[in-house]
Write a structure and sequence with these properties.
144 residues, mainly alpha, Glutathione S-transferase Yfyf (Class Pi), Chain A, domain 2
Length: 144
């Protein structure tokens, strides 16, 4: 919830550029995907990370990894279907707050090899578009 609130605050400071530029339909779509990330991707991918880091013999590890990896794959399927019809997550005309919120989770998931290499082609193409953006390059360099 904190990251979503921070993104909303930053959007306000930036004049709403990442939140639809005053277009109510775009704003609704962006908020829908932001909430999808906060309520689905963040918690499910985070749980997959938690269980994956447990010692191999820990009680519940196998169940947790299987459960949350399957849910992560389901969520990526939802995202892949949406990206089959547009280049960006929430709008057809460019990067939004939704892309910014979802991207780090997705690239981490893919980098860990949790998805088959040929799975989610639209998500992978979107991730490559995101990775090519100067602002994303600068932001991701902070974590390395």
């Amino acid at each position: 919830m904190e990251s979503g609130a921070i993104l909303l605050y930053l959007s306000d400071l930036a004049g709403g550029r990442l939140l639809g530029d005053g277009d109510a339909a775009k704003k609704a779509s962006i908020l829908q995907w932001l909430m999808w990330q906060m309520g689905g991707v963040g918690p499910m991918f985070g749980q997959a990370n938690f269980f994956d880091r447990l010692p191999p013999t820990a009680d519940g590890r196998a169940f947790g990894v299987a459960r949350y990896t399957a849910e992560g794959e389901r969520l990526l399927g939802v995202l892949d279907a949406a990206l089959a019809t547009r280049e960006w997550v929430a709008t057809a005309d460019g990067v939004s707050m939704a892309d910014v919120a979802i991207y780090p989770w997705v690239v981490s998931w893919l980098a860990k090899g949790r998805s088959a290499p040929d799975a989610h082609p639209h998500v992978r193409a979107w991730a490559a578009r995101m990775e090519a953006l100067d602002g994303v390059k600068r932001g991701m360099a902070v974590t390395q």
